[in-house]
């Protein structure tokens, strides 16, 4: 699939579909870092003779680097295309894994994870790729972004058992070094297929499509607001929805333990939640193609709130399994909808930086929500108040989505402009 950087491919074309498949592969490889470090935690803790909190610090800093790196790499992709940032990410991710495997203590381990793996490596394999995918599709943009974003969940399903097997056979150091070679080389080879620039940056979108309708609107004033205000509201919404999302995802294992069901049952519920999250991501993508990003965000936010409310009256084992599945089915499409909203309402040439910024705040929301739910539990001795706290944050997200949708409808005279041509 040789292509010149100046070649203009059409949106929704065969090339775009092939590129989407490669994007899914590269995201699955590049997102490995955020899942593998948890597998290594017990072995690292034992070898370095450190406390559990110290052994957990590399993961926290890796995630912070992952968030900030998404903005940095997104801005770079906006300027020079996504191929060169992907090549850089491949080099830094491979070097980061090797440096981690050779680290002599927890400080070197943490620095390698935070800077090389998180900030400069894995970060390029999420937000910049989501933004790039949104620029290659018009009629099937929602489902394309959903497929792309599923690579992050797929990495979580694929890499932990592989890493655990190698840790048991050759040790955590050799596992990291082997992953550095494999992931670095694989990412670099896949990146070579990303030379072509998106058609959204080269040609005007077709009239009568979602992108065509977006082009008619004034993208210097999204939702009738200044760009900074609009971006800020989306960032607050991202934090709010993910604070709520983190409550069950981070604490369901501990919650099951407190109820007397044991952590093993909670782990199965978490797997069920994430598995249905992949289904939700794909279904929400198809829905997004019909109703647009804002409506999909609002729908996901309302349904997530319903699932959180169900945790309050029901704490039996079977009901918890059902609610966990429902929660996964309701929440999986929320985060990708932000990329669609940015693509529909902001200038295409700024997609990488703006998608990266919003997704960074969703990561902050997950981190804040996990900590806050634990703090509320410590203060009250019950997860009941923590679920209520999550519901309150969820309502903030729904309120912002409703406000932005109201302003959009008012500006368009109530017309449903975001529907793609059939």
Q: How is this structure best described in words?
A:
- This protein has helices at 14-30, 33-48, 52-80, 83-102, 106-119, 127-134, 141-170, 172-191, 210-216, 227-258, 263-291, 293-311, 317-331, 334-345, 351-380, 384-411.
- The protein has 422 residues and is an all-alpha fold.
- Helix 2 runs parallel beside helix 7 (141-170), helix 7 (141-170) packs across helix 14 (334-345) and helix 10 (227-258) packs antiparallel against helix 11.
- The chain is globular, with a radius of gyration of 21 Å.
- It starts with 13 loop residues before the first helix and ends in an 11-residue tail after the last helix.
Defining key terms:
single chain; mainly alpha; 16 helices
Q: What is the alpha-carbon Rg in Å?
A: 21 Å
Largest sheet: none
* Helix residue percentage: over 70%
Shape assignment = globular
Overall average pLDDT: 87
Report, as a whole number of angstroms, the end-to-end distance: 29 Å
How does the SSE layout of this entry go?
Blueprint: H1 14-30, H2 33-48, H3 52-80, H4 83-102, H5 106-119, H6 127-134, H7 141-170, H8 172-191, H9 210-216, H10 227-258, H11 263-291, H12 293-311, H13 317-331, H14 334-345, H15 351-380, H16 384-411
């Amino acid at each position: 699939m040789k292509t010149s950087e100046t070649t203009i491919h059409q949106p929704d074309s065969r090339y775009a579909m092939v590129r989407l498949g490669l994007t899914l592969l590269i995201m699955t490889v590049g997102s490995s870092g955020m899942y593998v470090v948890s597998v290594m935690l017990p072995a690292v803790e034992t070898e370095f003779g450190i406390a559990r909190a110290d052994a957990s610090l590399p993961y926290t800093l890796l995630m912070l680097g992952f968030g900030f790196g998404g903005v940095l790499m997104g801005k770079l992709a906006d300027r020079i295309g996504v191929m060169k940032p992907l090549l850089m990410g491949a080099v830094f991710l491979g070097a980061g894994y090797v440096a981690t495997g050779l680290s002599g203590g927890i400080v070197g381990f943490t620095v390698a994870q935070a800077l090389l793996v998180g900030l400069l490596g894995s970060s390029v394999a999420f937000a910049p790729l989501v933004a790039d995918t949104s620029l290659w599709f018009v009629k099937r943009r929602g489902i394309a972004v959903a497929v792309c974003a599923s690579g992050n969940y797929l990495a979580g399903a694929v890499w932990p058992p592989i890493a655990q097997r190698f840790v048991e056979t050759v040790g955590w150091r050799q596992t990291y070094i082997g992953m550095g070679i494999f992931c670095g080389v694989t990412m670099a080879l896949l990146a070579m297929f990303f030379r072509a620039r998106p058609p959204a940056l080269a040609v005007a979108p077709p009239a009568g499509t979602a992108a065509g309708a977006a082009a008619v609107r004034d993208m210097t004033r999204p939702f009738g607001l200044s760009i900074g205000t609009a971006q800020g509201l989306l960032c607050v919404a991202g934090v709010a929805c993910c604070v709520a999302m983190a409550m069950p995802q981070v604490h369901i294992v501990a919650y099951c333990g407190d109820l007397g069901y044991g952590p093993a049952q909670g782990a199965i519920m978490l797997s069920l939640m994430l598995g249905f999250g992949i289904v939700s991501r794909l279904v929400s993508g198809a829905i997004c193609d019909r109703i647009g990003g804002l409506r999909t965000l609002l729908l996901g936010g309302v349904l997530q709130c319903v699932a959180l409310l169900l945790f309050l009256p029901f704490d039996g084992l079977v009901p918890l399994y059902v609610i966990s599945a429902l929660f996964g089915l309701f929440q999986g499409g929320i985060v990708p909808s932000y990329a669609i909203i940015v693509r529909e309402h902001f200038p295409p040439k700024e997609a990488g930086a703006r998608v990266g910024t919003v997704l960074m705040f969703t990561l902050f929301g997950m981190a804040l929500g996990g900590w806050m739910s634990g703090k509320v539990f410590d203060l009250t001795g019950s997860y009941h108040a923590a679920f209520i706290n999550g519901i309150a944050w969820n309502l903030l997200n729904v309120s912002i989505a409703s406000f932005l949708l109201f302003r959009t409808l008012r500006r368009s005279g109530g017309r449903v402009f975001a529907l793609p041509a059939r």
